[in-house]
DNA sequence: CGCTGTTTAGCTTTCA
DNA sequence: TGAAAGCTAAACAGCG
């Protein structure tokens, strides 16, 4: 018997957790990140059940976003004013769900404290980069002696940066195979950041979803581009297509 | 002021 | 049956 499609639940509550629904919404977005209001919209558009009692489930959903490390809050870029941040999926949270199912997760995705600190540090660095690159050119705004120029914050760099791509998501293979090191890991060596090396307008979610955790890679455009290309060729598109297919089958 | 985000608490459900 | 996962409620702070 064919399984019901997502749209066939009608007023019945869909068998997805809030985490699954949120992950679906984020993955269906072109940029793989959404503001809270768009996550609400995705869910209410597809699941009529959630068009009522909005206060209740939206509160639960916000709780899940804050509580679970699998969701990353990404500050808005200055050219995208609005309320609230963007939310993305942590790249290491790909294989949370049992047998590729969005019904129940294998285990809670929890970052180690050290990893969490690294991530926060990197997001702070990105916010700083955005501030620098989205600052209007000096000749575009009348000089105002009351404004303090933005001083670039020091971006921590390492001599070696490892970009860890997630295992191919939602396959039995990914669930049963070891996390043994492989050539899936790309080692790049960033150079010291400078104004000419930094890439403007690269969004945090793009970087995070490309599996590159260390934003020092910003300092080496060639490595960043190479990393991105390899990711998309071997994993990125396939992984997102898998999730998209799964979320449509259920 | 309403929305967003965080946190705590208590309960139910599911799984090993 | 205990632990983990999930759901709900609520209080509160910050921000646009």
UniProtKB/TrEMBL annotation:
Function: Involved in development during embryogenesis.
Principal place of residence: nucleus
Gene Ontology molecular function, alphabetical: DNA-binding transcription factor activity, RNA polymerase II-specific; RNA polymerase II cis-regulatory region sequence-specific DNA binding
Domain of life the protein comes from: Eukaryota
Coiled-coil segments on the chain, per record: none
GO cellular component terms listed in the entry, alphabetical order: nucleus
Signal peptide span: none
Membrane spanning stretches: none
Domain Fork-head: 13-107
Pfam families named in the record: Forkhead
Family matches, as InterPro entries: Fork_head_dom (IPR001766), FOX_domain-containing (IPR050211), TF_fork_head_CS_1 (IPR018122), TF_fork_head_CS_2 (IPR030456), WH-like_DNA-bd_sf (IPR036388), WH_DNA-bd_sf (IPR036390)
GO annotation (BP), single: cell differentiation
Protein name: Fork-head domain-containing protein
Keyword list, A-Z: DNA-binding, Nucleus, Transcription, Transcription regulation
Residues within the DNA-binding region(s): 13-107
Locations listed in the record: Nucleus
Record's keyword annotation contains Glycoprotein: no
SUPFAM superfamilies according to UniProt: Winged helix' DNA-binding domain
PANTHER family: FORK HEAD DOMAIN-CONTAINING PROTEIN FD4-RELATED, FORKHEAD BOX PROTEIN
